[in-house]
Specification:
glycosyltransferase, alpha/beta, binds guanosine-5'-diphosphate-alpha-D-mannose, 50% helix, 14 helices, binds manganese (II) ion, Spore Coat Polysaccharide Biosynthesis Protein SpsA, Chain A, elongated
């Protein structure tokens, strides 16, 4: 046995993100077997780390003294969070600290922590005290009573968010709705699939290679793991007092990317979905979104009474065409850069632009058709129907442009 230096950092596991079975005898002679391994992912949490470690230690020392470990996984925070955590190890003997320097990101941090864990129950909690620590014991109880996985949820009895703006609530619910459409088998199993506060039995994910993008590690765990009974415990997501959230627009894009990837790799595979170029599609979707802004801006500049005040229809046609031009240019230099760099002549470019125009026009017709069909026969809510229509038209626009305008045909 190697001698472990006091207060040394955990070695960062490398290779694939896979959780292994515990070796039969991990128990060292002088230590209790670990029941719960709780990962605390951190990035720039210098102001919170001591407090969270102290509160969790007090709680768990009461309940399972010596039988738990707290694993801080810090991504080499510039504020030295890992360093502070390391200095706490003498005072808190159940604390372990990992400092990652190559890899980054919340989800992979959690998995790396689990890989280093020695407990049979694996959990995760935020470091910023937005996840109320006492809920931890309820989660643990739920597992002891037979659940495979226990989630702290904002959307059941006893749960909530403290003071979120209307927009943030809407975005959060919108994301959930989208998830239900793309990945119902996973999203419908929990009321709060976005929760980053949960624990599960190790055996549920042993041997599975996890491959999450972004923040939503719970989705990945339920999606790829072998999870039976799920329990939920209500909690109120409190406000952050120290430090700041790392959530940016990128997390929303990552989330959608993640949903689609899970869908494709875990759902029943059709030939279509297996060959579907997801990354390219996401770029195409983003470009489409930029087109919406261009369209809106031009419409405003041309038709608003305070600006040019031109007639609405005329303004809209121009706005639509400018947006199409915008989208074409971005798609040509970004989404399909590899293809267009092979055909740079201006005549070739013009030809692509014309095709793109016609396909988008057909897409608009499809959009209107689907909107009517869905609204009249499926769901009597014009906004949901419109969302579905836009999704269908986007896939159409993408697929046909892929095959016709930029012609990315796989040659076997
Ligand atoms: N190691 C590491 N690397 N940790 C990170 C990273 C990273 O790149 N990004 C964020 N963290 C840590 C933060 O330090 C914090 O402890 C935790 O992950 C959550 O990050 P926040 O930036 O505070 O996220 P949030 O408050 O907006 O969202 C949280 O609540 C959501 C709703 O329940 C997260 O827990 C989400 O997972 C959760 O869905
Ligand atoms: Mn937070």
């Amino acid at each position: 046995m190697s001698i472990i230096q006091p207060n040394s950092l955990l070695t960062v596991p490398t290779g694939s993100l896979q959780i292994l079975e515990l070796p039969a005898a991990t128990t060292e002679a002088n230590s209790e077997p670990i029941v719960l391994s709780l990962v605390i992912p951190t990035y720039k949490e210098a102001a919170n780390i001591q407090k969270i470690v102290s509160i969790l230690t007090n709680l768990l020392d009461e309940y399972i003294p010596g039988k738990y470990e707290l694993i801080v996984v810090d991504d080499d925070s510039p504020d030295g969070t890992w360093n502070i955590a390391q200095s706490l190890m003498t005072e808190y003997p159940q604390l372990r600290v990992m400092r990652r320097q190559g890899e980054r990101g919340l989800s992979s941090a959690v998995i790396r922590g689990w890989q280093a864990a020695t407990g049979n129950i694996l959990g995760v909690i935020d470091a910023d005290l937005q996840h109320p620590p006492h809920v931890l014991l309820q989660l643990l109880q739920a597992i002891e009573e037979g659940a495979d996985l226990a989630v702290a949820s904002r959307h059941i009895e006893g749960g909530g968010v403290s003071s979120w703006s209307f927009v943030r609530r809407l975005l959060s619910r919108g994301a959930q709705l989208l998830g239900l459409i793309i990945l119902p088998g996973v999203l419908s199993r929990v009321s709060d699939p976005m929760s980053g506060y949960f624990m599960l039995r190790r055996h549920c994910i042993v041997g599975k290679t996890l491959n999450p993008v972004g923040y939503k590690i719970l989705l990945e765990t339920i999606g790829r793991g072998n999870v039976g009974k799920i329990a939920e415990v209500g909690y109120v997501f409190s406000e952050r007092k120290e430090g700041e959230s790392k959530v940016t627009w990128k997390q929303y894009v990552d989330y959608i990317h993640h949903l689609i990837r899970l869908r494709v790799s875990t759902g029943r595979l059709s030939k279509f979905s297996r060959n579907f170029p997801i990354d390219r599609f996401l770029r195409f979707g983003l470009v489409g979104l930029s087109g919406v802004f261009v369209d809106m801006t031009v419409l405003y500049l041309l038709s608003d009474p305070t600006t040019l005040g031109l007639p609405l229809t005329r303004s809209k046609i121009i706005a639509g065409e400018v947006a199409i031009l915008n989208n074409f240019l971005w798609n040509d230099i970004w989404t399909f850069a590899d293809v267009s760099s092979q055909q740079q002549e201006w005549r070739q470019r013009l030809k692509r632009f014309l095709k793109f125009n016609i396909i988008c026009l057909a897409g608009l017709v499809l959009n209107v058709l689907v909107l009517n069909l869905v609204f009249n026969f499926v769901i009597r809510n014009r906004y949901v129907a419109n969302l579905i229509a836009i999704a269908v038209a986007t896939v159409w626009n993408f697929w046909v442009n892929l095959k016709l305008s930029w012609r990315v045909t796989q040659v076997k």
